[in-house]
Write a structure and sequence with these properties.
By secondary structure, this protein is an alpha/beta fold. It has a domain of 229 residues: ABC transporter type 1, transmembrane domain (ABC transporter transmembrane region fold). Helix content is 62%, strand content 10%. It is built from 20 helices and 12 strands. It has a 6-stranded mixed β-sheet. A hairpin with a 2-residue loop joins β4 and β5. α1 packs antiparallel against α9, α2 runs antiparallel to α4 and α5 packs antiparallel against α6. The protein is elongated. It binds adenosine-5'-triphosphate. The site of adenosine-5'-triphosphate has 12 residues, from α10. Adenosine-5'-triphosphate (ATP) binds next to α10.
């Protein structure tokens, strides 16, 4: 949490003024019992109406000044706390953008959402409360005690007994409830997690008639949370009756001792009332202090969780060369520019963090400029893992990847990725117009370039039918488009970048065969001639590639052209003939 306090540094003035104004308010509050005493002892005792009115006006003035101080303090503390929250949120968001996929996989997106939302809100609420109360409450407790001593030392001795007893009760309850509140928080996290998962998978849940089971799961977690809250609420609930018993006991003692001393003329009635008021003020502030400590403890726990994420250093070092494929040079001066492979895997293996074994093992191949590389293999054979290493979503754990002759790790990741067009398995679009979505590929792209990309990605026809065409509004997650339409737009988005390397990771799965074939033909005829990686489970999608890499359980079972593999690679034969039975092929 300490490390987060730097986000308050732009709010130094507010962080000083808020507690100061609260103390000012408290000082005026401490004067009120004395004025009350004067009203009773002088005004009422002497039936001095003008004096009573004057003192009432003083009371109103004290109240008004206190109110202004309180509002001012509230303003400064709210400004500092919301500025703090905004700063932390911005820093955390930026930090998450820099984390590698390995780190994001390890933390999990649900956890990151909780850190960015409820954890930051709790930390912000903690800062707000601390700024307002951390000086004010102790100030009132000690101030009221000192004032009591100035009124009457003997009667004030009752405070010396009552305050420690009150403190023991208030802080005892707090100590017991604090770990319980932590438990409540973790139950709340589980409920949030379940809710998020449930909402994200609502369609699947309904399709599989799992509503009842999901409802029961939610009920169970919600009930656990409710029980935990009730339990901690019951213990917290003890605080008020116990403290009031002690305070009322103290007040009885004060009144009794006061009455005796009033009788002998050592104390006035007004002073007894002032002492009672000070006792009540102390009680209120001790309860506030306990609540402050509970909130701060929660805020510190949340702050530590946020700090934990901020502390994670991305384990992927950024290179410092700018990726310029046009003037790619090789360290080997004798090598001709055209002979430098666009992508080269040199005995590459990949083990995901925490995984039991390798997902890719000893992969070696060269993809020359303008070539199309097909990657085929069964589910989980490592196809996505292989292409994900080209834009450095993951780094090789063994071996080396070279892009245009240089170690991939030497390039600045941002510049490397700006020349790679990636179309992932899951088509993700964002709320906004079609044009806005396409310009993610290149924000400076002209309308003509967008049209060209739509043409190649076979999206033009359906975009023509949408009202407003490029200005058609895509809803959140692209829910007003079909799966195939979304896929075509994500392909167009990657093409707008005019990439040197284009990766299509099973991204034509929602397209019919004819559209898939037209797409591949259009990509082949692109004038910029990118190196294309097509990942697919369909043999028809890769069979015309210059090279096909057949993956089997993370290993390259064969690399070659369709004709070569059909002769030499049993794994490829198995895939191909399972989709195009031998009889059909020979008859055709
Ligand atoms: N982020 C990850 N963390 C840990 N293991 C992973 C991760 N991504 C993939 N794997 C594992 O690596 C192996 C290869 O997965 P990959 O997604 O590359 O296969 P694939 O051939 O693309 O499969 P599919 O055709 O089903 O998409 C699998 O065993 C998978 O469980």
């Amino acid at each position: 949490m300490k490390s987060l306090l730097i986000y308050l540094k732009n709010y130094k003035k507010e962080s000083v003024l808020a507690p100061l104004f609260k103390m000012l308010e408290a000082s005026f509050e401490l004067l009120v019992p004395l004025v009350m005493a004067a009203v009773i002892d002088v005004g009422i005792a002497d039936k001095n109406e003008p004096y009573i009115i004057k003192m009432c006006l003083v009371l109103i003035a004290l109240g008004l000044i206190g109110l202004v101080c309180s509002i001012t303090a509230q303003y400064f503390s709210a400004k500092a706390a919301s500025g703090f929250g905004t700063g932390v949120r911005r820093a955390l968001f930026e930090h998450i953008q820099n984390l590698t996929f390995t780190e994001m996989d390890t933390i999990g997106s649900s956890t990151l959402i909780t850190r960015l939302t409820s954890d930051i809100n709790q930390a912000q609420a903690g800062v707000n409360l601390v700024l307002r109360l951390f000086l004010r409450s102790p100030f009132i407790v000690f101030g009221a005690m000192i004032m009591a001593f100035t009124v009457d030392v003997q009667a004030a001795l009752i405070f010396v007994v009552v305050i420690p007893v009150l403190s023991v009760i208030v802080f005892g309850v707090m100590l017991v409830t604090m770990p319980l509140y932590r438990k409540v928080q973790s139950h709340l996290d589980s409920v949030l997690l379940t809710t998020r998962e449930n909402l994200a998978g609502a369609r699947v849940i309904r399709a599989f008639n799992k509503e009842e089971e999901e409802r029961e799961r939610f009920e169970e977690e919600n009930q656990t949370l409710t029980d935990a809250q009730k339990f901690v609420g019951r213990i917290s609930g003890l605080m008020n009756p116990l403290t009031y018993i002690v305070v009322n006991g103290g007040i009885i003692a004060l009144i009794y001792a006061g009455a005796v001393r009033v009788n002998v003329g050592d104390l006035t009635q007004g002073e007894v009332v002032a002492l009672v008021n000070y006792m009540s003020q102390i009680l209120v502030e001790l309860v506030k202090l306990a609540n402050l400590i509970i909130t701060v403890t929660k805020a510190v726990a949340c702050g530590n969780r946020i700090g934990g994420v901020l502390k994670i250093q991305p384990d992927m070092q950024d290179g410092d060369s700018i990726f310029r494929p046009a003037d790619a040079i090789s360290k080997d001066a004798a090598q001709r520019r055209e002979d430098i492979p666009a992508v080269e895997f040199d005995h590459v293996s990949l083990t995901y963090k925490g995984a039991a074994g390798e997902s890719l093992t000893d992969i070696t191949f060269r993809a020359m400029r303008g070539q199309t590389i097909g990657i085929i293999g069964g589910t989980g054979s490592g196809k996505s893992s292989l292409v994900n290493m080209i834009p450095r979503f993951y780094d090789a754990t063994c071996g080396m990847i070279r892009i245009f002759g240089n170690d991939i790790r030497d390039y600045k990741t941002e510049s490397l990725r700006s020349h790679i067009g990636v179309v992932l398995q899951k088509a993700v679009l964002f709320k906004g117009t079609i044009a806005e979505n396409l310009r993610w590929g290149n924000e400076k792209a002209s309308d003509e370039e967008l049209e060209e990309a739509l043409e190649i990605s076979q999206a033009k026809e359906f975009v023509d039918q949408k009202p407003g065409r490029l200005e058609f509004q895509i809803e959140q997650g692209g829910r007003n488009l079909s799966g195939g339409q979304k896929q075509r737009l994500t392909i167009a988005r990657a093409l707008v970048r005019k990439p040197e390397i284009l990766i299509l990771d099973d991204s034509a799965s929602a397209l019919d065969f004819a559209t898939d074939a037209a797409l591949r033909a259009a990509i082949r005829s692109m004038k910029d001639d990118p190196t294309v990686f097509i990942v697919s489970q369909r043999a028809s999608s890769v069979q015309y590639a210059d090279q096909i890499i057949v993956l089997d359980d993370g290993r390259a079972a064969g690399i070659g052209t369709h004709d070569e593999l059909l002769v030499s690679c049993p794994a490829y034969q198995e895939i191909y003939y399972s989709q195009f039975p031998k009889e059909a092929v020979s008859n055709g």
